[in-house]
Design goal:
The protein is an alpha+beta fold and 144 residues long. Helices cover 33% and strands 29% of the residues. The protein has four helices and five strands. It has helices at residues 21-33, 41-62, 96-99, 114-121, and strands at residues 9-17, 70-78, 81-88, 124-130, 134-142. The two termini are 16 Å apart. The mean pLDDT is 88.
């Protein structure tokens, strides 16, 4: 994990308002970034679901649906790997280990399966967070 393989990279960065309508935009960008690769439609769908979960977490949990806030997404595509970073400057996560457990949610109305989906659909997931400073979720998918 940690660093993208050191070969030719294409980097895409996007900042968008923390509104649910932008989840589909993030999904489409992630899918487009790997559309020229030899991966299956199922793998593209998995990437899209993982991105949806990460962006939704930033909007709902990081910002409490405050549409005046901004989510950042950075995609780095190399020959061998895709790394997607979803970054918010929201409330952060006090206990990352607990947050990564299936069925944990900070909201009673939610199922708490977002990180479980991300972990099952991606090759690696990295969560960096500090309370009141925000969260970065990095999603890694091997492309070879």
């Amino acid at each position: 994990m940690g660093e993208l393989h050191n070969d030719k990279r294409n980097i895409l960065e996007l900042s968008f308002s923390a509104v649910s309508a932008n989840v589909s935009l993030a999904r489409l960008l992630a899918a487009a970034a790997v559309s020229d690769r030899d991966i299956t439609m199922a793998e593209i769908d998995e990437i899209k679901v993982a991105v949806s979960e990460a962006v939704s977490n930033a909007i709902i949990h990081g910002y409490g649906n405050d549409s005046s806030r901004t989510v950042r997404m950075r995609l780095e595509v190399s020959e061998r790997q895709l790394m997607i970073s979803v970054i918010d400057e929201g409330v952060g996560i006090a206990d990352i280990e607990q947050a990564l457990k299936p069925s944990f949610s900070s909201s009673e109305e939610r199922m708490g399966l977002g990180f479980a989906f991300m972990q099952s659909f991606m090759d690696a997931v990295e969560v960096i967070s500090q309370p009141q400073q925000g969260t970065t979720v990095r999603l890694y998918k091997n492309l070879q």
